[in-house]
């Protein structure tokens, strides 16, 4: 009889069941990864609540890393940086397939933006677990990895799990900051550059990782805005020069005024929106200095609209930039940022809660209550 393995399966909105599957046979170009840890993302909450269309049943989870238990002969040579893979190696996987379908408009005419491919598939959201190999999400004891279509990165042996699990969110955060780099002419104070001021709206995991990336990249004054005192305290540990507690402010104009006060009356050179709250968008525009850049990364799902004044955008002559996921190469940046700095930046403190596989729904509820920061499943 085939060995059985367990996974948390979302059978329909708000209904998770721990199920058993046959342990899959590993093909010559496949990898069976034993899941060491998987983060619960805000996107997972939207999926759980039924706010995103997914092919039920699915195994959620896309922020995962783990150890190779079995590997096919061909797969040993498919690590994207050219490293040889072997059983026992720690790996992480770019969860969205990005080898370009080659058929859609974006793959043909914008190949430098694979994140826009309309045929993109992703672990934990767009692939059902109904058929073999079943294990296509991180909320399980194992993940079946197909490195022909999904990019596999070997992790440093001494990289702590609590740091490695941040690779995917750091890819999101660092790419959002890099949107303020391009095209950019730092010598003319156009775009992000050394000593530039940055305001981060939201001190959740993405906001804190944007903060970390900005400081590592040489930002000058970084201001972090949130309404949770505990998150702002961690922001200070991550290097924030100033924090603004929204609970101590009665009107948005006061927050905007405080950011301007801290930036010579001008506003921040770069503002990054990481809250996913629509009302922060017009506020962010106003706290961006004239000629500055505003990056929107927080609204991965549609949380509704908000009134804005186009005149402000025109008069301020600002760039408003969306940041949608990341190219697969961003994982190299993310791993490097995390690994090179985990001794000086307290990345491990982001993982505040860990739950067993059987406690997956408890972990989701913890996230929904905004308790802690990064909640993770440790199968």
Helix and strand arrangement:
Blueprint: E1 4-12, E2 15-22, E3 31-40, H1 42-49, E4 63-71, E5 90-93, H2 105-109, E6 142-145, E7 152-154, H3 161-164, H4 167-179, E8 198-201, H5 205-216, E9 222-226, H6 229-237, E10 242-245, H7 252-262, E11 268-273, H8 280-287, E12 288-296, H9 310-316, E13 319-322, H10 330-341, E14 351-355, H11 360-368, E15 374-377
Parallel strand pairs: 8-9, 8-11, 9-10, 11-12, 12-13, 14-15
Antiparallel strand pairs: 1-2, 3-4, 3-6, 3-15, 4-5, 5-7
Strand segment count: 15
Q: Architecture of the largest domain in CATH? A: Alpha-Beta Complex
The secondary structure category is alpha/beta
CATH topology of the largest domain: Quinone Oxidoreductase, Chain A, domain 1
User: How much β-strand is present in the residues?
Assistant: 15-25%
Q: Total helix count?
A: 11
Radius of gyration equals 21 Å
CATH top level label of the largest domain: Alpha Beta
How does the overall form come out from the CA principal axes? globular
Distance between the termini: 23 Å
The residue-averaged pLDDT reads 95
What series of H and E elements makes up the topology? EEEHEEHEEHHEHEHEHEHEHEHEHE
Unreliable stretches: none
Instruction: Report the CATH superfamily of the largest domain.
Output: Medium-chain alcohol dehydrogenases, catalytic domain
What's the number of structural domains? 2
Percentage of residues in helical conformation:
25-40%
The largest β sheet comes out as:
7 strands, mixed
């Amino acid at each position: 009889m085939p060995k059985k393995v367990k996974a948390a399966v979302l059978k329909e909105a708000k209904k998770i069941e721990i199920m058993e599957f046959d342990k899959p046979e590993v093909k010559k170009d496949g990898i069976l990864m034993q899941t060491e840890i998987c983060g619960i993302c805000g996107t997972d909450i939207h999926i759980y609540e039924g706010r995103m269309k997914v092919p039920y049943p699915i195994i959620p989870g896309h922020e995962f890393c783990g150890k190779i238990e079995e590997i096919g002969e061909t797969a040993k040579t498919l690590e994207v940086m050219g490293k040889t893979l072997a059983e026992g190696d720690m790996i992480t996987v770019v969860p969205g397939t990005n080898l370009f379908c080659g058929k859609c408009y974006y793959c043909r005419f914008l190949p430098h933006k694979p994140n826009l491919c309309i045929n993109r598939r992703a672990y934990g959201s767009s692939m059902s677990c109904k058929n073999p190999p079943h294990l296509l999400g991180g909320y399980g004891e194992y993940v079946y990895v197909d490195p022909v279509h999904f990019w596999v990165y070997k992790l440093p042996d001494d990289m702590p799990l609590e740091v490695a699990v941040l690779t995917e969110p750091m890819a999101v955060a660092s790419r959002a900051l890099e949107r303020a780099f391009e095209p950019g002419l730092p010598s003319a104070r156009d775009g992000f550059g050394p000593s530039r001021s940055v305001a981060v709206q939201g001190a959740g995991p993405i906001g804190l990782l944007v903060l970390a990336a900005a400081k590592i990249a040489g930002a000058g004054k970084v201001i972090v805005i949130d309404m949770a005192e505990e998150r702002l305290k961690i922001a200070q540990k991550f290097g924030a020069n100033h924090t603004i507690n929204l609970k101590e402010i009665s009107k948005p104009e006061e927050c905007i005024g405080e950011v301007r006060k801290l930036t010579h009356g001008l506003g921040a050179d770069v503002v990054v929106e990481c809250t996913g709250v629509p009302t922060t968008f017009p506020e962010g525009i106003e706290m961006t200095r004239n000629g500055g850049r505003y990056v929107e990364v927080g609204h991965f799902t549609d949380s509704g609209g908000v009134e804005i004044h186009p005149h402000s955008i025109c008069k301020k002559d600002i760039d408003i930039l969306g940041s949608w996921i990341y190219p697969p190469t961003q994982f190299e940046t993310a791993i490097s940022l995390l690994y090179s700095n985990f001794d000086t930046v307290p990345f491990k403190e982001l993982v505040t809660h860990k739950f067993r596989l059987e406690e997956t729904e408890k972990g989701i509820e913890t996230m929904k209550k905004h308790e802690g920061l990064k909640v993770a499943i440790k199968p």
